[in-house]
């Protein structure tokens, strides 16, 4: 064998070794898996999460999956503990977790919680039987009102709003049951009103409006709302249109955003790639076609009602597109 061929073989062997090392490193690194904690399979979070996961994934490098869960609180606990890379939550619940207030009073602050995007509004419904003749929050005084279950975000929101309008639980006849049970109680005449937080229209209220003697959506409006929004940044003004529920007039109300959160411990590169893909044309088409709430997920409102800081990866994208300076 000539000296040239020996040198050539040596170079070839060295080159193959470098390729092999690079391939081994790539295999070791593997794809990035990114779970989204959503909600129950019958709710809105789960299908929206699946729709986003499918649109944003870019196999084999980045693979997102939607995971059914018990909703906002469970998702935040999952993100904080590292059992989930991300999750959907109400903006108010995220803010309470971050500050150790509300539902998270007395618990360690979830200081690593970070925002990827605000998704769509979840409207606060104060629903009253037409027969109860309730036209304002103040009219609930002395009425039988369900505020949702203990431990729910809805209960905390309801207390905040009642207080803003000069009422406490001592001023009403409070009950603490889920909205579906409350609708049944209203139908049989044992309840005057109940509170529900979620995207409209919701089936429990729609069925009640159609078959249970009719409902009114009590407006949340007036100077009290301005004070509320100064105190609680996660509240946004909202309106439930006339006809959303049979026989019910349009009602000004408040909403909390359904938000996508992650941990500060997740890499900025990963979150940047996910945020950029979320607002890409491909995802826009999937959101518009896939679910009624998908059309409400808009880049222009991606930062609305933020109660926790932006993740640096998301912040980088929003600066690039001029949403923040």
Brief descriptors of the model:
TRAP_TAXI, 11 helices, Immunogenic protein, 10 strands, 3 domains, D-Maltodextrin-Binding Protein, domain 2, ten-stranded mixed sheet, disordered N terminus, signal, 325 residues, alpha/beta, globular, single chain
Assess the beta-strand content as a share of residues.
Answer: 15-25%
Report the CATH C-level class of the largest domain: Alpha Beta
Identify low-pLDDT runs. Answer: 1-28
Mean pLDDT: 88
The CATH superfamily of the largest domain bears the name: Periplasmic binding protein-like II
Structural class label: alpha/beta
Q: End-to-end span in angstroms?
A: 66 Å
Helix content class: 25-40%
What fold name goes in the CATH topology slot of the largest domain? D-Maltodextrin-Binding Protein, domain 2
Task: Write down how many β-strands occur, each being a DSSP E stretch of 2 or more residues.
Answer: 10
The succession of helices and strands, N to C, reads HEHEHEHEEHEHEHEHEEHHH
* Biggest sheet statistics: 10 strands, mixed
> So how many helices?
11
Query: Which architecture of the largest domain would the CATH scheme give at its second level?
Result: 3-Layer(aba) Sandwich
General form: globular
Number of domains: 3
Keywords: Signal
Signal peptide: 1-28
Protein name: Immunogenic protein
Pfam families: NMT1_3
């Amino acid at each position: 064998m000539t000296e040239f061929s020996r040198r050539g073989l040596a170079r070839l062997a060295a080159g193959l070794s470098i390729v092999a090392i690079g391939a081994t490193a790539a295999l070791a690194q593997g794809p990035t898996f990114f779970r989204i904690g959503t909600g129950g399979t019958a709710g809105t979070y789960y299908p929206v999460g699946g729709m986003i996961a499918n649109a944003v994934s870019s196999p084999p490098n980045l693979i997102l999956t939607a995971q059914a869960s018990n909703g906002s609180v469970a998702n935040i606990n999952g993100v904080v503990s590292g059992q989930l890379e991300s999750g959907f939550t109400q903006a108010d619940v995220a803010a309470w977790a971050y500050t150790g207030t509300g539902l998270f009073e007395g618990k360690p602050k979830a200081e690593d919680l970070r925002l990827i995007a605000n998704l769509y509004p979840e409207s606060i419904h104060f629903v009253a039987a037409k027969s109860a003749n309730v036209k304002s929050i103040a009219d609930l005084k002395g009425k039988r009102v369900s505020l949702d279950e203990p431990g729910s975000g809805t209960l905390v929101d309801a207390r905040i709003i009642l207080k803003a309008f000069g009422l406490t639980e001592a001023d009403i006849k409070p009950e603490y049951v889920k909205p579906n049970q409350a609708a049944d109680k209203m139908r049989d005449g044992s309840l005057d009103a109940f509170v529900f937080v979620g995207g409209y229209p919701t089936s429990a209220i729609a069925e009640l409006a159609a078959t249970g003697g009719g409902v009114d959506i009590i407006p949340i409006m007036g100077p009290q709302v301005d004070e509320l929004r100064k105190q609680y940044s996660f509240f946004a003004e909202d309106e439930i249109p006339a006809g959303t529920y049979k026989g019910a007039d349009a009602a000004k109300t408040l909403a909390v955003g359904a938000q996508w959160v992650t941990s500060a411990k997740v890499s900025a590169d990963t979150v940047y790639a996910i945020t950029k893909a979320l607002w890409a044309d491909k995802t826009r088409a999937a959101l518009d076609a896939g679910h009624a709430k998908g059309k409400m997920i808009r880049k222009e409102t991606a930062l609305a009602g933020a109660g926790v800081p932006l993740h640096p990866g998301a912040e980088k994208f929003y600066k690039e597109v001029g949403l923040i300076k």
